[in-house]
């Protein structure tokens, strides 16, 4: 019988390897690499034994630092029992990787901690790319197999109340730090599960940061500040990764602190700094196909919440009509983003989305023109 202390960790003295492991010891190279099969097998074996020995119910009562310390102690004990010919550096690396499996996002956890990484693109279990300074780079990071990657994806989406399975093989979610996550699995993804993570800095860029980086001139900042203070409706257009959300966060900093802001998003990623912010997020349908809450539903509901300003993370469907109606009924000063190549194209796309709405009426085209709407393109200048 295994004896456990108050933390649920087995404190037996070092002894022979588990009897269920007939091999006893695993020969290990002097330096691990992420693609070493022996390393992956050993990590899986230690991970499984750790799950058997640790009472995670008791660990959940501790703070994160204490939990990590207790898990490291248990991992070191398991490695000592096997008497593996590992250097101190290899043991520490293996311990950290197992800790990432238990508490983090597995093999991509080190990438999540790299401040230079802006995107993490997992193209099946055997191929991981990252974006650094605007350029894609292939990494040696791999997952054990598709099932391993699926477990990490499920861990991400379950934390925000989402699900992913064969009946719902696509999902948008977010991480605790605000990073945006998209996952798609078979049968839609032919070669295996696909995971895309758009990371956001822990501290959002301010207008002064953009000024220092040369993205804006002082005159541009002055004009944008005046537009927000004058309660003009602003639509930020641009392509993927052009900085629409970053610009929206900067513009929101010009909103007076005394105003009530309601944000509506598919997956919450905005980082508004005002003290009076109400954040709303959509919800997908359940297994029975019921319970879906769309951005359009949230925009309509936000009108009953006494907002001074409504901030829609991205306009992409029927909510465009409700947003424009809100702008024309006393809720001016709203800000949103839209995918378009230019400011002129954004108006055309906005009209198209309104016409695609199920409840659109012919005068809808006029409604978009009557709204006091200012468009700003975040597409980089040539």
Protein topology:
Blueprint: H1 37-53, H2 56-59, H3 64-82, H4 88-103, H5 109-112, E1 117-123, E2 128-132, E3 135-139, H6 146-158, E4 170-174, E5 180-184, E6 194-198, H7 207-213, H8 218-229, E7 233-238, H9 244-252, E8 261-265, E9 277-281, H10 295-302, E10 309-312, H11 319-327, E11 335-339, H12 343-356, H13 364-370, E12 373-377
Helix pairs in contact: 1-3, 1-4, 3-4, 10-11
Task: Tell me what you see in this structure.
The structure is a single chain. A hairpin with a 4-residue loop joins strand 1 and strand 2 (128-132). The protein is built from 13 helices and twelve strands. The chain is elongated, with a radius of gyration of 25 Å. The strands form two sheets. A six-stranded antiparallel beta sheet has the order 3-2-1-6-5-4, covered by helices on one side. It has a six-stranded parallel beta sheet with strand order 9-8-10-11-7-12, with helices on both faces. Helix 1 (37-53) packs across helix 3 (64-82) and helix 3 packs across helix 4 (88-103). By secondary structure, it is α/β, with parallel strands linked by helices.
């Amino acid at each position: 019988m295994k004896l456990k202390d108050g933390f649920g960790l087995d404190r037996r003295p070092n002894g022979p390897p588990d009897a269920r492991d007939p091999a006893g010891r695993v020969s290990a190279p002097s330096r691990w690499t992420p693609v070493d099969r022996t390393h992956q097998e050993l990590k899986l074996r230690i991970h499984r034994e750790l799950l058997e020995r640790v009472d995670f119910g008791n660990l959940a009562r501790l703070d994160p630092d204490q939990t990590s310390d207790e898990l490291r102690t248990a991992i070191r004990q398991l490695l000592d029992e096997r008497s593996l010919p590992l250097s101190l550096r290899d043991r520490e690396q293996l311990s950290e990787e197992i800790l990432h499996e238990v508490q983090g996002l597995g093999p991509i956890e080190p990438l999540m901690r790299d401040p230079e990484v802006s995107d993490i693109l997992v193209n099946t279990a055997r191929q991981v790319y990252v974006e650094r300074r605007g350029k894609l780079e292939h990494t040696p990071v791999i997952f054990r197999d598709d099932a391993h990657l699926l477990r990490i994806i499920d861990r991400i989406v379950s934390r925000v109340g989402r699900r992913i399975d064969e009946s719902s093989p696509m999902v948008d979610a977010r991480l605790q730090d605000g990073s945006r996550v998209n996952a798609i699995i078979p049968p839609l993804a032919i070669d295996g599960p696909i995971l895309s993570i758009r990371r956001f800095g822990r501290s959002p860029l301010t207008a002064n940061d953009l000024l220092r980086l040369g993205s804006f001139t002082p005159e541009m900042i002055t004009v944008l500040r005046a537009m927000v203070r004058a309660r003009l409706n602003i639509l930020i257009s641009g392509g993927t990764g052009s900085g629409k959300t970053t610009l929206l966060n900067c513009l929101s900093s010009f909103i007076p602190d005394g105003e009530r802001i309601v944000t509506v998003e598919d997956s919450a990623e905005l980082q508004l700094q005002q003290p009076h912010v109400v954040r709303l997020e959509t919800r997908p349908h359940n297994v029975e196909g019921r319970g879906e809450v769309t951005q359009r539903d949230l925009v309509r509901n936000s009108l009953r919440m006494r907002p001074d300003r409504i901030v829609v993370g991205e306009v992409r469907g029927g909510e465009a009509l409700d947003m424009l109606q809100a702008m024309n009924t006393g809720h001016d000063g709203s800000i949103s983003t839209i995918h378009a190549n230019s400011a002129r194209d954004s108006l055309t796309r906005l009209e198209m989305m309104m016409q695609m709405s199920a409840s659109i009426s012919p005068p809808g085209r006029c409604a978009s023109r009557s709204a006091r709407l200012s468009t700003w393109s975040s597409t980089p200048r040539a």
